């Protein structure tokens, strides 16, 4: 039976094409194509969308900016090159100024021009000390660099020698790790060095360009400027430019001729502002600049309140102080003694902040005050702050007279020795009587000072602390004093006594404080204005009121309270005589006493507690105060009385108790004087436990012997 051969499967191949069911068309028909109108419609829609995108504001702005930058590319390139050169030059100038101590040398030069030998010597010593410090720092850096490089070189050489002597395969694991770290550092340095120096060069170029763009006269990001507010920067160039545009003909001619202003004190930081002193050219006085203060302030970019040109030590010297922007617009803050602290009126009472941001604390003895301004500007608050500070000194005696129905000083009543308030004649009579009593007290104090050892010329803190002498500080305050001086009955007497006190009373510890809202030539006597030592003027209307409070000629000298604005500058005053400066612009501390806020009474409660701790009471000095007893002191009885019940007392303790008992008699005594007095009565001190003591029995026996001898 034969086997049929097996058939092989052969795949069949069919020809065809893939079709989309959406585009299926009947057989024999062609696929429809877009006609020309349809293509035109599609192109129109696409073109509209493209035009909408191109014409949108963002694309138009970007296209304009790009086109402008392309057109300005050559100019920008030149500017960048200029910024680069200028920045490198500024770095060089700053480095030169730092290396040559230019700022300190300027101080020395200014001190030499001003004739200040001490300031010049101080600047020169500072230069030498700074140079020594710089060389010492440089030596330290060089020494550390050399030592570090030497140590690194030795370590690398030792590692290389170790690798040459023995292969790494025989080294311990920790040593192979050291070699691995070395190799990694080496590869990192080799690979990164090209990028490091390129990045450094790029960074320096960018920094130089940035430095070149800086237009401030001081240092920028390398040398930190003295003030944080770059907009407040004022230098000699800006001041000279501002002065050149004041419209002063002689000054303009001088500058057009190539002249340069001489700065006897260069522009420098002074508190919250800049101070400079300029010697003006021939034909120009400081008054001319002061008269154009508003223009000068505008030229310097300041308000009038922030620009203070005044006459220096000569008429041709301009003393200029310019505040930083906005520093004078805020208040002074809380009074430093509002919650704690005591006062020594001989050291000063804090009343406010000066234009430099420094607390102003004028001493009250040896001064008299005249405070004035328009109503509601802060004169009564300043007077109250002065009295509150004096109340915190337990040795002070305070008298207050208010010539009107005002309760501003009512909380001080517990601390006041005399207090009257009202508009009737009895208040004026009481004020005149107080002035007369102070004149009598002044004569008494003069006699007491003349009897003190060494004949001191004035009352000091040491003398004021002795109650037996009665030389404690005595302050009389009169609010609305114009009502007193213009009183038809008592005005003439009040003026006479007040002028006498102002002229002579200050060295006897007597202080007169006057406050007024009507500082005219009729309301304030001329002799008071001429002799007052401390004047404070809040906002006033004209130059007459200004000079009536601050003194004759102050308006012409540029010291003007007329520049202060009503309500806006409430609490700010122009003051003279309270510091060594020509004037101070003081933002006074405010201690509220009004509806819902009374911070005055707690201060008075503290003052009364301090008086209790000091074992003092509120006393009243009268015009018929008892004179000092001139009867010779009985030394034996005084010694026996201060020993008291103790059987024996150290001689040093006896001497101290005698000085406290009768300062006038015993304060000059020494132990030698005490021993001589005891020896004259047959009394001898003896030593016990290493100290000299005196027995009460010996003193009592000496008194008995003396009394028996006197009876015989």
UniProtKB/TrEMBL annotation:
Keyword Signal in annotation: no
Residues binding ATP: 373-380
Domain FtsK: 355-547
SUPFAM superfamilies: P-loop containing nucleoside triphosphate hydrolases (SSF52540)
Keywords, in A-Z order: ATP-binding, Membrane, Nucleotide-binding, Transmembrane, Transmembrane helix
Transmembrane segments: 141-162
A GO MF term: DNA binding
Organism domain of life: Bacteria
InterPro entries per record: FtsK/SpoIIIE/SftA, FtsK_dom, P-loop_NTPase
Name of protein: S-DNA-T family DNA segregation ATPase FtsK/SpoIIIE
Originating organism: Saccharothrix violaceirubra
């Amino acid at each position: 039976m034969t086997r049929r051969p097996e058939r092989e499967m052969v795949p069949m191949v069919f020809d065809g094409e893939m079709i989309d069911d959406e585009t299926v068309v009947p057989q024999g028909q062609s696929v429809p194509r877009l006609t020309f109108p349809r293509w035109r419609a599609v192109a129109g829609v696409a073109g509209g969308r493209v035009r909408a995108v191109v014409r949108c504001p963002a694309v138009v702005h970007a296209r304009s900016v790009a086109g402008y930058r392309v057109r300005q590319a050559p100019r920008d390139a030149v500017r960048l090159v200029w910024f680069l050169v200028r920045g490198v030059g500024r770095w060089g100038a700053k480095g030169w100024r730092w290396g040559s101590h230019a700022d300190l040398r300027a101080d020395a030069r200014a001190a030499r021009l001003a004739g200040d030998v001490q300031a010049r010597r101080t600047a020169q010593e500072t230069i030498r000390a700074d140079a020594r410090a710089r060389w010492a720092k440089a030596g330290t850096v060089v020494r550390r660099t050399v030592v570090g490089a030497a140590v690194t070189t030795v370590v690398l050489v030792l590692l290389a020698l170790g690798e040459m002597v023995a292969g790494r395969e025989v080294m311990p694991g920790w040593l192979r790790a050291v070699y691995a770290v070395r190799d990694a550092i080496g590869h990192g340095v080799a690979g990164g060095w090209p990028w490091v120096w390129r990045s450094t060069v790029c960074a320096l170029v960018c920094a130089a360009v940035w430095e070149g763009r800086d237009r401030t006269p001081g240092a920028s990001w390398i040398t930190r400027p003295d003030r944080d507010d770059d907009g407040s920067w004022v230098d000699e160039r800006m001041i000279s430019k501002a002065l050149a545009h004041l419209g002063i003909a002689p000054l303009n001619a001088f500058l057009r001729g190539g002249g340069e202003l001489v700065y006897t004190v260069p522009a420098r930081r002074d508190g919250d502002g800049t101070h400079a002193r300029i010697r003006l050219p021939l034909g120009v006085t400081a008054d001319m600049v002061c008269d154009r203060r508003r223009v000068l302030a505008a030229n310097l970019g300041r308000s009038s309140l922030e620009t203070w040109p005044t006459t220096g030590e000569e008429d041709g010297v301009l003393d200029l102080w310019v505040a930083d922007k906005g520093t004078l617009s805020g208040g002074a803050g809380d009074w430093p003694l509002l919650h704690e602290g005591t006062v020594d009126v001989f050291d000063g009472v804090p009343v406010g902040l000066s234009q430099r941001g420094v607390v102003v604390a004028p001493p009250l003895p040896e001064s008299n005050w005249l405070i004035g301004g328009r109503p509601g500007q802060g004169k009564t608050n300043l007077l109250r702050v002065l009295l509150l500070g004096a109340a915190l000194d337990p040795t002070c005696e305070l008298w207050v007279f208010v010539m009107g129905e005002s309760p501003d000083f009512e909380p001080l009543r517990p601390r006041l020795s005399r207090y009257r308030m009202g508009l009737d004649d009895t208040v004026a009579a009481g004020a005149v009587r107080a002035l007369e009593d102070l004149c009598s007290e002044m004569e008494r104090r003069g006699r007491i000072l003349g009897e003190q050892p060494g004949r001191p010329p004035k009352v000091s803190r040491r003398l004021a602390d002795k109650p037996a002498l009665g030389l404690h500080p005595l302050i009389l305050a009169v609010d609305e004093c114009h009502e007193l001086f213009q009183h038809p009955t008592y005005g003439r007497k009040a003026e006479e006594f007040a002028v006498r006190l102002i002229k002579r009373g200050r060295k006897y510890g007597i202080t007169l404080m006057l406050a007024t809202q009507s500082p005219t030539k009729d309301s304030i006597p001329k002799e008071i204005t001429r002799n007052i030592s401390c004047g404070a003027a809040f906002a006033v209307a004209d130059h007459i009121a200004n000079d009536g409070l601050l003194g004759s000629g102050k308006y012409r000298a540029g010291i003007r309270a007329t520049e202060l604005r009503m309500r806006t500058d409430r609490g700010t005053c122009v003051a003279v005589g309270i510091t060594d400066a020509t004037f101070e612009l003081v933002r006074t501390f405010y201690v509220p006493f009004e509806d819902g806020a009374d911070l005055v009474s707690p201060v008075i409660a503290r003052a009364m507690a301090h008086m209790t701790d000091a074992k003092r009471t509120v006393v009243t000095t009268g015009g018929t105060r008892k004179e000092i007893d001139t009867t010779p002191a009985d030394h034996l009885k005084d010694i026996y009385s201060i020993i008291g019940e103790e059987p024996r007392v150290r001689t040093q303790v006896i001497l101290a108790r005698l000085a406290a008992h009768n300062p006038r008699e015993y304060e000059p005594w020494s132990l030698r004087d005490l021993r001589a007095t005891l020896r004259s009565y047959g009394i001898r001190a003896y030593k016990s436990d290493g100290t000299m003591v005196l027995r009460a029995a010996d003193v009592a026996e000496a008194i008995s012997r003396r009394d028996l001898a006197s009876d015989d």
